[in-house]
Amino acid sequence: MAHAVPSHYYLIVSALLLVIGTLGVLLRRNIVVILMSIELILNAVNINLAVFSRMHHQANGQVFALFVMAVAVAEAAVGLGILIALFRNRGTILADEMDLLKW
User: Alpha helix (H) ranges present in the chain?
Assistant: First the structure.
């Protein structure tokens, strides 16, 4: 008989993903890495939703996690489309070089 993994292990993994994702957004200049860091943050949120949903014996958190995944897919598709357009126009994917809205 398999033993269940304690819930706090999942919460620790989620906290680590949140920290890694936040550091990636704040410290990196490459837009692709920033988008992947945002995905890590969203995955940390999904783990928390699933764990707390399981702890309270309700499916609300798991259903909400599915909606978060759908938003993450849309964000990735739109973000990569914008990134490709910017790379074609500017020739770079560094966030510091993206100053199209400056006068």
Answer: 7-27, 31-55, 60-90
- pTM, full prediction: 0.85
Report the SS3 class of residue 95.
Answer: helix
Q: How far is CA 58 from the centre of its chain?
A: 24
Question: In 10 A of CB 2, how many CB atoms?
Answer: 4
Answer yes or no: are the C-beta atoms of 37 and 75 closer than 8 Å.
no
**Tokens linked to 4:** 């269940």
Rounded to whole angstroms, the Cα distance separating 64 from 91 reads 38
Residues whose CB falls within 8 Å of the CB of residue 31, separated by 6 or more in sequence, listed in order: 83, 86, 93, 94, 95, 98
Which residues of the chain register pLDDT less than 70? 1-2, 100-103
Question: And the tokens for 30?
Answer: 């490459």
Domains observed in the chain: 7-96 (1.10.287.3510)
Please, what sign has the CA dihedral across residues 89, 91, 92, 93?
positive
